[in-house]
Records
---
Amino acid sequence: MKEKKDVTLEENKAEEVVTSTVAPESTVVADSAWSAGQAEAAAEEKDDLHGENLTDRAKVLSPWMTVLKRFFRSKLSVIGLVTIVVLFLFAFIGPLCSPWAAAGGTKLDSNPELIKEILSASPVTYTVGDMEYEALAVSVRIPQVVKLGDISWSHWMGTDDMGYDVLTRLMYGGRVSLTIGFVVVIIETVIGVIMGGLAGYFGKWVDNVIMRIVDILSCIPTLPIMLILSVVFTQSGLGSSISKLYYMMIVLCLIGWTGTARLVRGQILSLREQEFMLAAKASGLSTFSKIFKHLMPNVIPQLIVSMTLGLGSIILTEATLGFLGIGAPLNTATWGNLINVANISTYRQYYPNLWVGAGVCITLAILAFNFVGDGLRDAFDPKMKR
Amino acid sequence: MVKYVIKRILLALLILFGVSIILYVLIRMMPNNYFADQYKLTRANAGIPQEVIDAELTEILKQYGLDDNSFGGILKGYFMWLGKFLTGDMGISFKYGNRPVQDVIGQYMWISFGISFVALLLEMVIAIPLGIKCAVNQYGKLDYVATVLCMVGIAFPSFFLGNLFIKWFAVDLGWFETGGLGNGFFDMIWHLILPMTVMVILNIGGLMRYTRTNTLEVLNADYIRTARAKGLSEGKVVYKHVFRNTMIPLVTQLSFTLPSLFGGAMITEEIFALPGIGQIAYHGLLEGDIFLAMGYNMFLAVLTVIGVLLADIMYAVVDPRIKLGS
């Protein structure tokens, strides 16, 4: 019985959400607190009796505000968003708080300035033959690089096989892994929107040519191609610089835009038959403004969702390349490269502090982007029954 | 229908032609060639001067169309490869015992297929009932927990989960084996428990969510209301009327798993040292076994094309409302 009641409650919410752009304030309040809503409704009836105009109290929410409101209502999306913010803070602010941070996490465990630290200095005199020399006897501390150090107060996650602080490298790794996702997804989307838009709008042979290219590219197996290209790039002298990763990501963009193109094309095919496009045509708008001002805004919700979900998958791809040792050069800190040591069974077994952190970060990032993407999808969908 | 299928097959051939050109050019751009590397090594060890080796090698590579790395040379090599490919000859895998590529793929493919197939069955047995149950009790406790767990499963990278499992269950606890196939049937099952668990965890989420979404759609359909109005019990409504209609999109969805079913899981196989086609191809690719690389990638492309085609045909077969070719 209780369940039944819940269901009706939920349905009520859904109706309000759909109409909330013009809904009076009282109804919007009702969905956050049922009892309060009932009270309001009663008050509303009273107001009506007194002849007060209902629209005076209406609070109009813009479509975007509606989406935001619905997005923040879902717990999972909020958890996802918070996780993403935390990961970004960890990657971009974190290194500023780390004593081991310097140039991409490459600073060794040993602090080079310490080498100059003089513990004691005392003048001594000694004679060689007839000559008497004066000198300064100096004892200095030369710190040892602690390789594969244990978890300690100075190294919260220990140090790796080169003596780098793992936690700091994890932070710097996040910078590369997180930003690369955004760059790739944006480029992919731009290419996909242009190609899909052209195919969907013009149809005929343009559509045919573009869609055949899409078919061909989506048949190419990604991982083997990345393996081959990694070998090719390494041979052409890119093996030791971070630009190799950038080139690989460009390739990823070049074969990854097909999904977006399909999505945009499909949407445009159905949209261009609608009345508002006829109106746009009748008012003599240029092709450019018809596509980008009237068609595209209608595709944006789906694009945002697919971009968010795409972010997670790019992070996964980068990590996979790193794990296989074919992504960025191995001395560069990326999450994928950090988890690469798990390939060596000794490290996998006895030094989990080296790779588990990176794995957790990757998983969290993908999970968070998926939560947000799902939340956005539900928030954008006006038919969504909640 | 027949006309549509023929049209689609011709289109598929065109797509595969395009794919093969791109693949061939990329593979030929690879600096290493397993055969040339090995040949140079053995001949140099035999004390033969460098110039002689180079001359011999050029002669041999010419037979395979691999000698000239200029654009024209690659194009010539491509058509040589294509001519053989069309007669069913995919070239020779130098790394795996100088055998024809189709034999190598044919041998190791079945290992991958066996593992993936059992994993897929397990996924279906768990995911489909769970998805339906979640949809029927939408926003219930089970629904929330299962959805979140599924998303976590989807988010795990295979290499991370695989390595965690090896560390915990194979080494720390010593329950399972770290990798390989073992000897004999029961030993093999023992070895395969961990990799299969990894595969199931990674893929179950997608299937379960798909089932759940579809079931939700079916539950809102008019015929379900009719079934309830007739006075059928809830169990009969769900397990007869809902279940059957949920299966329609699922059947088509399964066509898309074709490439992963036969093509192997490269990373999972590599981590657990399973000699499936994925691992074989991975090492072949890295060491420049040109014809194997070409053959494997084309194999995957063909599977993808067939999968998509099959899915489209299945749509029409299971749902008579869909008309093909419009």
---
Amino acid sequence: MSLVLVIGVIAGCSNKETSGESKNGKKVDLKIWSFTDELKEPIKKFEEKNGVKVELTIVPIADYPTKLKPVLESGVGAPDVFTGEIAFLKQWVDAGYWENLSEKPYNVDELSDNYVPYVFDLGKDQDGNVRALSWQTTPGGLYYKRSIAKEVLGTDDPDTVGEMLSSMDKVFEVAEKMKEKGYRMFPDEGSIRWFSQGDNPKPWVNENNEIQLTEQKIAFLDTAKKLRENNYTALAPEWSPSWFEAMDKPIKVKEGGKETETQVFSYVLPTWGLHSVLKTNVEESEGDWAVTNGPSPYFWGGTWLGVYNKSKNKELAYDFVKMMTQDDEFLTDWAKETGDVLSYLPVTNEIKDDFSDEFLGGQNNYQFFLEQAKSIEPGIVTKYDQQLDTFYGNAVQEYVDGKKSKEEAIKEFYKKVQNAYPDLKVPNK
Amino acid sequence: MLDRTEIEKGVPEERLVQKNTGPKKAAPEKSKTNKRRSIIKGVIYALLILLAIVCFIPFLMMLVNATRSNDAILTGFTLIPGSALLENYNTMMEYVNIWNGFKNSLIISVLVTVLSGYISALTAYGFAFYTFKGKNFLFVFMLVMMMVPGQLGLIGFYELSKVLGILDTFIPLIVPAAASPFVVFFLRQYIKSTLHPSLIEAARIDGASEWKIFHTIAIPIMMPAVATMSIFTFIGSWNNYIMPLVILFSPEKYTLPVLMGFLKGSQVAQNLGSMYLGIAISVVPIMIAFLFFSKYIVNSISAGAVKE
Amino acid sequence: MNKLNRYGYIFVAPFWIIFLVFSIYPVVLTFYYSFTNYSGSGTAEVVGLANYKRLITDTYFVEAFFNTWKIWGINFALQITIALILAAVFSDMRVKMKGLAFFRSIFYLPNLITVSSVALLFGILLDWQHGSLNMVLIKIGLISEPINWLNEPTTAQLSVSLILTWMWFGHSFIVVMAGVSGISRDYYEAALIDGASRVQTFFHITLPLLKPILLYIMITSLIGGLQLFDLPMLLTDGIGSPEGSLNTMVLYLYNQAFKYSNYGYASAVAYGLFVITIIFSAIVFKSMYRNERKQARQV
């Protein structure tokens, strides 16, 4: 008897947990999953506009694919709309979880001319059907502090500074000047990986399942080591608390038995770095920033979104996708508020000429980034990127720390790749 | 808390000490030994206190840092609390609702404990007081399975949950944990030695049903042992990390341990103060509960080890 | 009687239903997967012994094996030494120590804290540039250069060992104390009368009589230690950095299955781990048992 009772209690409990109610018991009309909080504001607007309740679930990016996949497969507690990051986008457009937007009633192919071509193409599956759309384009840049540039380089003009950073050798020249004046060029060594990746970009894995480690990526080992050995960085690893702290304030670096206080000159970040990283963490140095190019163009990240094909509320779900990717009014406001660079051409063409961002001292970052966007090579995205980047990052770290020679580090990288993905072919060494 | 313990109680130490320092030794020498002894004692106490401090220092750092702002923590360590507690709390709650994790962990752990206690008692009683075909085989088989580490079936368990459609629910975290061979074994040994079969016979003659005998006679007698095992079951379930990590996907269902890992990857990790606060919130209630239950817990561990 | 004994089945039925479905079946299913190339979706193709062949030549698994042993071994040696010293101190009849309950509680406290909280806490306390631990150590002059605890294989493994010791010595202490209190006072009285020194008493009376309890601690600790997962998973990047030194067997299993989707191979890893656990538990058991017999013969 009591056993039946207990089981009843459990069943009751889990039923409550899995039903479509939100934490505070209100009815939820739409569930959205993403890996950052950037959709928070748009969701608020969407709720106001349509009088609905939306629940946003944020899962950190490292767990996002592993957590989302089983949800989509089983359909239990699944979202109606979910986003995909470029690193695993390829895998997902082909997996068939997203509704086919090329079909009726969506017919998004008619809109293809409205988008930056590579952004639209990346959302297509192997049969050419559009599965996901994106509102942004994500070319990269190098954000720096104007005051430090003026003091050390004699100018804060983005074009002139960009010219001073147009090759790796020149970057090191600037880094040396920074060091002489007590500044650090970058927060950490990882900062420059994008320049080596953007120089002669190739996908990690080619169509024959062969791993491709380009010369430029190998050269990155040396540049990273040089940065460390010459004390050009502030030893603040990407995404760590000190990395964020160093954007706005002087930071203490413990090195060679003494502690020195220093400031970081520049951060290598793409378009979204401006609104979702810099603006949210910087207070004091607002307006003191500018963006320019590094030694080579690159792109980093990007968020696509689509409708879950088993969603029970596809209409509303697509409404949200539409607002994020096709709504002139919303997107114009969004761009002006955040400075995010849109892939939706009707809006970008409208605003690009007289755009200016206070945070960047009034610079027109739009035109800069749209120019950079032209050199994006979307073909280099593979489904292995997230793990392979991690493995290679570790290899670089071990070389920089002096634990392994270059050959050993590369060998170890190949070994790890082979171990995790036995199907991939690595060079026989 | 500083009560005299079993060992001190049960031993006629006074007598022993007297024997040792016996009548042969002169009085001044005796005081000398006493003096030396108290110095040794002092040193030992000092060392014990040092060890206690070492034990507690990570918690202390955590508590102090939970009240300090990110830039203060990055600049240096101090024992003086900061004033950023509320700010840290708000930052943390913006991304991760830690109380929700508490609630989930509590629901799961309580249900597991109750269910495991009841089912184990039932099984132990069945094994101890009935004879049926295959009983010995089942019992030995169960003992053998006790040796199997939980990770062995992890992948099969995940696939099974997928097929049953119970991924991302609490069911795979509650129901399987209710069948614990170790608890059954412990309870069976216990009731075998505490409940005499004649008592059951007498009840049967009085016309009590088997269920009634179990509920009114066996359960009350087993209660102390069930309580002992419940502490282990509860702690085990509360601290379980790998199972909920694999089974649960939606952050609002995460248990506390999984939520901690989640905290590390989330934007909270940008702010060390909030990070420390999040950890502190996961730790402090356990500490407070321990203040009340420490005696029972310590006794249970002792009992669990000695009865083995 | 027959009717009565039907209740035997009824009473053990709920346990066995749950146990068969959720414990036995998954173990069998995992065994099946270990002979396939199952990747988490689609069909599983039987590949024979390929996974096991790969397992015995897999340097990462071997590395995980030795890492797990190193980390567990250092921790166990420290933990049991501290526990025994404490037990010796508190059971000494000449120096009557007070406050057993108090110290016992304090020492035990870290054991109750969720391991993932512990991992997170030490992850940030041990940070190279900005961790509070380095700051304190520099301040009191113990070190001049910050130690990059979690970036060097040796210090990273040592950190995990020490954290485990911190978490577990209180528990071992309680269990040892329970064993000590079970030893008859007569032995100590006799030793005292014979004028045996503390050290002699400890090594010739306490330790031999504690053998069953030490065996219990060792086997439970070993089984737990071989399953080390939470700490290495959350302390660094979750794939065993630095230089694979925190790659433990269960962490490897988890990553192969749930990160790289090699479910078939991960199942073989699980069985490899199982075999290792059985072998070493048996060795511990055997060696302790044989020593006992030898001693008995000598007497």
